[in-house]
Design a protein that fits this description.
The complex is a heterotrimer of chains A (163), B (757) and C (294).
Chain A (H helix, E strand, L loop, with lengths): L3 E7 L2 E7 L5 H8 L18 E4 L2 E4 L12 E3 L13 H8 L9 H14 L5 H7 L11 H20 L1
Parallel strand pairs in A: 1-5
Antiparallel strand pairs in A: 1-2, 3-4, 3-5
Chain B lengths: L15 H5 L15 E7 L5 E7 L1 H5 L3 E6 L27 E2 L5 E7 L2 H9 L2 E6 L6 H4 L15 E9 L2 H7 L2 E9 L11 E7 L3 E6 L4 H12 L6 E5 L14 H13 L3 E4 L2 H7 L2 E2 L2 E9 L5 E13 L5 H11 L8 E10 L5 E2 L6 H19 L3 H8 L6 E2 L3 E2 L5 H11 L2 H6 L5 E11 L14 E7 L5 E4 L9 H13 L6 E4 L18 H27 L8 E4 L2 E4 L2 E7 H11 L5 E7 L11 E12 L6 E11 L6 H21 L4 E2 L2 E2 L18 E5 L22 H13 L10 H7 L5
Parallel strand pairs in B: 1-12, 10-11, 13-17, 15-16, 22-23, 29-32
Antiparallel strand pairs in B: 1-5, 2-4, 2-6, 3-5, 7-16, 8-14, 9-10, 9-12, 14-15, 18-19, 20-28, 21-22, 21-27, 24-25, 25-26, 28-29, 30-31
Helix pairs in contact in B: 6-7, 9-10, 10-11, 10-18, 14-15, 15-16, 17-18
Chain C lengths: L6 E3 L4 H10 L4 E4 L5 H6 L7 E4 L9 E4 L3 E5 L4 H6 L1 H6 L1 H9 L3 H6 L2 H7 L7 H6 L3 E6 L2 E6 L4 E3 L2 E2 L6 E7 L6 E8 L10 E9 L5 E9 L6 E2 L1 H7 L6 H14 L10 H25 L3
Classes of the chains: A alpha+beta (163), B alpha+beta (757), C alpha+beta (294).
């Protein structure tokens, strides 16, 4: 039952951490790596606040054992705008469209949205709503969140065309 | 009305960047050196006497630094209603009795949260179980066991309102309706579970970082329960992940963290989990409502007898305010000559109910609005028409309460009729579909000083600097609704400087002016906004002389502040930058900084609120008549929040309110058995997801509220009120079943339609 | 809740996994998606000293379909992958639907169909369609492999016939015949994305005249285990559906269920919903079967 040494690749940075096998990825990100942008709203996989990307897929980091993420690519909200200068189009759109209120669901919401757009770059509002149905929000009624994701998808598409 | 362009602008919230990058700091994100982790032991039984507590084994566990029970504490009762000390019925940790499943009994601080949890299991508590009661009917029955010995038959507070001759007006009525309604408890379900971190300071002082919507109330009550001077407690509100009324009292973990921090000399943090929040957390009051109304045959409301029992759970919490306001919401929306309200706040052995968005209004409105629809049907009058007949208007008097200084209610009704296609859709009736209407009015902050504060209700301190920037210090509390941005908009408008140039100091009771009662009752924009304006005007008074001397102005001139410049209104060429003006003023004051305080306390504004919002909502509903599932196809809202300071923020409030109202009406509820909450996960506490949300359109009916900053009034809570009656009415139109009980679950609906026995 | 304590094993192939499972058969658990197991471990509901993860075992997450052999869903296949697999969507729409609406996006990215079956919750969403598709599970242990029809797999709430040394390797689903149709419908108090309060799956195969050759109906969340409805199936076989037959067959489904009252619904409502959903499912299956020759 000893701690296990694992290697996490978080936002491109490698970390070696000794973790309890029972520790969740959310716990290790927050407590060990001090990446507190990942929030824990229920710790049971029901609210989506702790959503991170593991190898590009959105998962509940509270249900993921950290040992399972050994040598996998983890993206947290801190990884979307590493320099802090240029935001990801989703982050920009969340601000501009008023998709953020208390902000506690925002990190999970944005990462869930990123996973959605990576798979489906031009989702319909219905597809966005379905894709986000694992992320609860109590402030916004989701309206501006859906709008923000649509806006970001257009911006991303325009960016691709320009290139 | 002419106002600066920043008023009404959809300025994105200024903390948005921090929040979307994960850099915003919430309490549980903070780690202090040497920090201990706290955990709470709670009562497993709904009602009982504590016979014995033995914490010796827990104390002996390696890594445990402190264990406390009620007997270790000063045992000072507290409650938000300081004005009525008898209402203060709570202790941070139970001493003699426990009164609900979850009542806090002991607290542990240890070097890890694992150890703290294990220590809880080692605490031995022996209880003598007492008979428990779970409904207001049982609680008020003859011979019911008393939950608080000093209460009168478990009733902790009574509120009566009476005017007009009720019997006389009922005698004149052509139609009299008597109905009973029952509404249920729901959770605030803020996404961020409560968290508090207490850090001991030198000299027996303590700094508490906490997820709260009322830093000042926490400061006062914490000092009181710790038995130390108010000034020894510094409350730092961090980012708060939603509140909705659920974070506006002193809570046992705030006390326990602080008490143990002072005892151990180490920082102590408590963070609740979701199961604790849902099982034991505050909730909206369930109510049993009896309402009798009399109408003339042409639809005029003549008399109302409104009797309400609020199921308060084990303690008063914010129940007294809800009891007061519920009565006031019974007569705020319509004008009628005779009214009697009899409200009783009743103890039961359940988790305490407290303030929740709407504060007694969603419950009252469900009854009032549903009954109005019943009357409309009986009288053969269109439901919107009957509201127009009785609607409040500007200048109307809510007896013994206030004169309504601005009211766009009738315009809202007309507007919602138009945008929903009400008339045409009601004519072309589609099977299993229906259109329902619900309306609201709400307060823009409270007048009644139940907290008995010695200070003004809101305060602001403004400083300006010769680099053209300003600093606003305020205890007002942004819990996600956006007041940090709105207050800066107001200051920017008043000083005529860019919003980016304003730094805000909030969240710290030691660095902000006394006081602010917090974020509840939709009070911040109006009250704190007025305080900001007052402070800004004092600053302008210090700056104006600079222009007068600079340009040798005639006494009759006036000065404008706009676009980061200050100029003579009649001769705009005579101008200087705001920065230069401050520089010159500073010189003139021989270095004394330019700073000013502003305050707001509603005076001579009656008993309830200085201003009232209004609105009307229509829900378009489909019902699957076989499964009983209700789908809301579309919402239409028209509302009057005065002048919206930030349109995008107002929209956000409306959209969020619909989510909450939808859950309240259809899917959210606590399933309880013998005082235990059975559905304590978000899997089984069903708040609407993105997929459940109906599309929504809305219209703003702008009025100018003379008491509000730049004409603004509330937009946060009122919108949470009309959704339940609107959907319930839509369901009736679709099915013929009038639901007098919430929530309208598929099962309840099928039974009501006679399709399930 | 305290962090659960156990030793974690990540075998690199099936043989290693079987060795570990055999070694720790008394106090070990197998982890695939972890979405059911992790919360249970955290709640201290199990005395588990060893957790054996299947996630580094290659090949387990395959999803393959052949006209003759049917569908094979590897034990590691994620719900989301099954939901979006074109062959599954085409030939097993009921299963695709179940996999696309249960739980949340994140959990569907983590959880596996096999895990949903092994967990054996009465409300297991994938169980009803898999029962209707006549699926079997492949259980392996050191030196042996057996096929168990899903109808014989569940033995109670959270219980099944798996031996402690066994691993579920895959789920096999036979190829549907031409002129067949299938569907899964579920209900809950919230939207489509939620735990089911009632689930009904159906499968119908028709002859060229539109007469039902074979009918299979299965229920979830209305009995201690997901189950088939033989009485209703027999009623439908050899018939063309009409409203009366639909009502009678749905009523037979109601007789097959043994629901309870819980926080999600009462038994009475569940019964009623089995009646409603069974009727709708049969109708939907019949329509798709008539439409296509797929």
């Amino acid at each position: 039952m000893a701690k296990q040494l694992i290697e996490l690749i978080v936002n491109g940075d490698r970390y070696e951490v000794a973790v309890e096998p029972g520790a969740s990825l959310a716990e290790v990100l927050r407590e060990e790596l001090y990446l507190t942008g990942t929030k824990v709203g229920c710790n049971q996989g029901d609210c989506g606040a702790c959503t991170v990307l593991v190898d590009g897929r959105s998962v509940s980091s509270c249900l993921t054992l950290a040992v399972e993420a050994h040598q996998r690519e983890v993206t947290t909200i801190e990884g979307l705008a590493p320099s802090g200068e240029t935001l990801h189009p989703l982050q920009e759109a969340f601000i501009e469209k008023g998709a953020v209120q208390c902000g506690f669901c925002s990190a999970g919401m944005i990462l869930a949205a990123k996973a959605l757009l990576d798979r489906n770059p031009a989702p319909s509002p219905e597809e966005i709503r379905h894709g986000l149905s694992g992320n609860l929000c109590r402030c916004t009624g989701y309206v501006k969140i859906v709008e923000a994701i649509q806006a970001a998808s257009l911006k991303l598409a325009a960016g691709k065309e320009a290139r | 009305m002419n106002h600066p362009s920043i008023i009404g602008a959809s300025i994105p919230r200024l903390d948005g960047r921090a929040k979307v990058t994960g850099r915003a700091i919430y309490t549980d994100d903070i780690k202090a050196p040497g920090m201990l982790f706290g955990a709470l032991l709670r009562s497993p039984i709904p009602h009982g006497r504590i016979k014995r507590i033995d914490v010796s084994k827990a104390r002996a566990l390696a890594g445990v630094k402190d264990v406390i029970v009620g007997a270790d504490t000063p045992q000072i009762k507290y409650g938000n209603w300081r004005l009525v000390p008898a209402s203060q019925d709570e202790l941070p940790l139970a001493v003699d009795k426990v009164r609900f499943v979850g009542d806090e009994v002991a607290a542990v601080a240890a070097v890890s949260s694992d150890i703290a949890q294990r220590a809880l299991e080692l605490i031995e508590v022996e209880y003598e179980e007492l008979p428990a009661i779970y409904s207001v009917e049982e609680a008020t029955a003859e011979g019911a066991p008393l939950i608080h010995e000093e209460s009168q038959g478990n009733v902790s507070l009574v509120r009566k309102i009476e005017y007009g001759d009720l019997e006389e007006w009922f005698a004149k009525a052509d139609l009299i309706l008597e109905d009973e309604f029952k509404v249920h408890a729901v959770s605030h379900a803020y996404l961020e579970p409560c968290s508090s971190l207490a850090v001991p300071d030198e000299g027996g002082r303590v700094t508490l970082y906490t997820s709260t919507q009322t830093p000042y109330i926490v400061q006062c009550l914490l000092a009181h329960t710790l038995g130390i001077p108010e000034n020894y407690v510094r409350v730092m509100k961090t980012q708060v992940g939603g509140g909705f009324g659920g974070k506006m009292e002193l809570r046992p973990w705030e006390f326990s963290a602080s008490f143990m921090a002072l005892r151990t000399g180490l920082p102590v943090k408590f963070t609740l989990n979701r199961a604790e929040e849902l099982s034991y957390g505050r909730r909206r009051h369930p109510m049993s409502i009896y309402s009798k109304v009399g109408f003339s045959k042409d639809g005029k409301l003549l008399a109302k007898d409104f009797q309400v029992m609020l199921d308060g759970g084990a303690y008063n919490a914010m129940g007294p305010t809800a009891t007061f306001l519920c009565g006031t919401f019974g007569n705020m929306l319509y004008n009628f000559p005779a009214y009697r309200y009899y409200g009783r706040h009743v103890y039961t052995n359940k988790p305490p109910a407290s303030a929740m968005r709407g504060f007694g209004a969603p419950q009252a409105a469900f009854a009032n609005e549903t009954q109005l629809n019943l009357a409309a049907e009986k009288l053969g009058i269109d439901p919107i028409e009957i509201r127009l007949i009785n609607a409040m208007q500007t200048g109307d008097v809510i007896p013994d309460v206030a004169t309504v200084s601005s009211c766009g209610f009738k315009e809202c009704l007309e507007k919602v009729r138009e945008i929903s296609g009400w008339d045409a859709k009601r004519q072309a009736k589609t099977p299993n579909k229906g259109l329902g209407v619900g309306c609201f009015s709400f307060i823009s902050g409270g007048v009644f000083n139940w907290f008995d504060t010695k200070y003004n209700f809101s305060a602001a301190e403004v400083k300006v600097f010769d680099d053209g920037t300003a600093q606003l210090a305020s205890m007002a509390c942004d819990i996600g609704q956006g007041t940090d941005t709105v207050l800066r908009q107001i200051l920017a408008a008043e000083l005529g400087i860019s919003i980016e140039k304003i730094r805000l100091i909030a969240m710290d009771t030691a660095a902000t002016p006394k006081a602010d009662l917090g974020s509840w009752g939709s009070r911040v924009t109006l009250m704190n906004g007025n305080a900001v304006i007052q402070a800004a005007r004092k600053i302008k008074d210090m700056l104006v002389p600079v222009l007068f001397s600079q340009f040798d102005l005639n006494q009759i001139h006036d000065v404008a502040f706009e676009g980061d410049e200050v100029f003579v209104k009649a001769n705009p060429k005579k101008r200087m930058s705001f920065a230069e003006c401050v520089y010159k003023a500073l010189r003139g004051r021989r270095g004394e900084p330019l700073s000013a305080y502003g305050y707001y306390t509603p005076r001579d504004k009656g008993l309830v609120s200085p201003a009232f919002s209004f609105g009307a909502q229509v829900a378009e509903v489909s019902v699957d008549e076989d499964t009983g599932l209700v789908t809301v196809d579309q919402m239409y809202t028209a509302h009057d929040c005065g002048v919206a300071i930030n349109k995008m923020a107002v929209e956000g409030q409306l959209e969020g309110a619909i989510q909450m109202g939808l859950g309240y009406t259809l899917s959210e509820q606590f399933v309880m058995r013998e005082g235990h909450t059975l559905n304590n996960t978000f899997l089984d506490y069903k708040m609407p997801t993105a997929e459940d949300m109906p599309p929504s359109v809305y219209a703003e009916v702008e009025t100018y509220e003379p008491e509000g900053p730049f004409g603004a009034k509330e937009a946060g809570e009122g919108l949470a009120i009309p959704t339940a009656p609107a959907i319930a009415h839509g369901v009736f139109e679709a099915t013929g079943f009038r639901c007098r009980k919430l929530p309208i679950t598929p099962e309840r609906l099928l039974r009501g339609m006679g399709k399930l026995r | 809740m305290p962090t659960p304590r156990f030793t974690f094993h990540q075998p690199q192939n099936l043989e290693q996994a079987l060795d570990l499972v055999g070694m720790y058969r008394t106090n070990g658990k197998i982890l695939a998606g972890g979405t059911d197991l992790v919360p249970k471990l955290r709640a201290g509901l199990m005395d588990v000293h060893h957790v054996v993860s299947l996630n580094r075992v290659p090949g387990l997450n395959r999803i393959t379909f052949h006209e003759d052999d049917g569908l094979v869903i590897g034990a590691g296949a994620r719900l989301a992958d099954v939901a979006l697999n074109p062959e599954v969507m085409k030939h097993y729409p009921g299963l695709a639907h179940a996999c696309s609406v249960m739980a949340t996006t994140q959990i569907r990215n983590m959880g596996t169909v096999a895990g949903n079956i092994v967990n054996s919750a009465p409300s297991a969403d994938t169980a009803a369609p898999l029962l209707a598709y006549k699926a079997a599970v492949i259980l392996v242990e050191r030196g042996g492999r057996r096929h168990v029809p899903l109808t014989e797999f569940f033995s109670g709430p959270g219980l099944n016939v798996m031996e402690p040394m066994e691993i579920m390797e895959a789920i096999r689903v036979p190829s549907p015949p031409r002129r067949s149709g299938s569907a899964y419908l579920r209900l809950s108090a919230r939207s489509k994305v939620d735990i089911a309060a009632v689930g009904v799956a159906g499968f119908l195969a028709l002859d060229m005249d539109g007469v039902i050759i074979e009918a299979r109906l299965a229920l979830a969340a209305v009995a201690p285990t997901p189950l088939r409805c033989p009485e209703a199936e027999a009623m439908l076989a050899g018939q063309k559906p009409d409203p009366q037959l639909l009502t009678r067959a749905a009523a037979a489904c109601v007789r097959a269920c043994r629901p309870i009252d819980d926080v999600r619904a009462t038994a009475a409502y569940r019964r009623k919903m089995v009646q409603v959903l069974a009727g709708r499912v049969i109708e939907q299956c019949y329509q798709t079967a008539e439409r296509g020759d797929a």
